[in-house]
Amino acid sequence: MSKRNGTDFLAADVHARLRAKILTFEIKPGTRLVEDEISASMNVGRTPVREALLRLQGEGLVSREKGWVVESTDPSNMDAIFESRIAIEGYATRLAAARVTDADITELAALVDEMARFEQMNRAQLNQLNRTFHRRIIEMAGNPFFLDMHEKTLFYYWNMRLPVIFTKDQTQEANDQHTVILSALADHRADAAEEAAREHVRTTYRIVKDALEGF
Length: 215
What we know:
Elements: H1 3-23, E1 32-33, H2 35-42, H3 46-58, E2 62-64, E3 68-70, H4 78-99, H5 102-115, H6 123-140, H7 144-159, H8 168-186, H9 190-213
C-alpha cells in the first residue's frame, strides 16, 4: 500500500468514526474539534484527521472558523429539512413495500406494539423506538444512499433542539399512522405505503411549525 493510499484509508476511517459520533449526538452541536486531540484519541497522524474534517465540512456537519466546530442547525432551514424528509422517507417506503419480507413485517409490528405503550415510557425511549421503526423501513428499501440521506435529515432535525412537546393525542395519532404504514407494507401496496409515510412526516411538520409559531 502506498503512503497516499494509506492516508486515504486512515482519513476514511476517521471520517466514518467522527461522522457516526456527530450523527448520534455523542459529539454534540457546538463542540470544538481539536485536531491534536482527535489524532491522539484515534492514534493517527494529523493529516488524515484534517482530511476527515474537510470531508465533514463538505457534508455540512462541521464548520471552520477559528477552529473546527460541530454545526448547529438554523431553524430557518426547517422547511427544507421536512421537504427532504417527505421526499426521502416517502419514496423509500414505496420501495420497501415491494421488498419487505414476512420477517421484516414481524419486526416492524413488534415496534408498533411497543410504541402503543407510550404512556408507560419516557419520551427518550419512545423517540428511540420511533427512530428504529423508520430506520428499519429505510433499510428495507435496499438503497444505502437513502439511508445515508435519511440519517443526515434526522441529524438536522434533532439538531434544532425544537421546543416541541407532543401531546398524548398527537402521539396517538403518530402511532395510528405507524399502523397504517405497516398495513400498506404488509400488503405490498406501494402507492399507499408512500402516501402514508409522506402524510406521517407532514403531520410532524404541522405540529412542529405550529409550536414554533407560538414560541
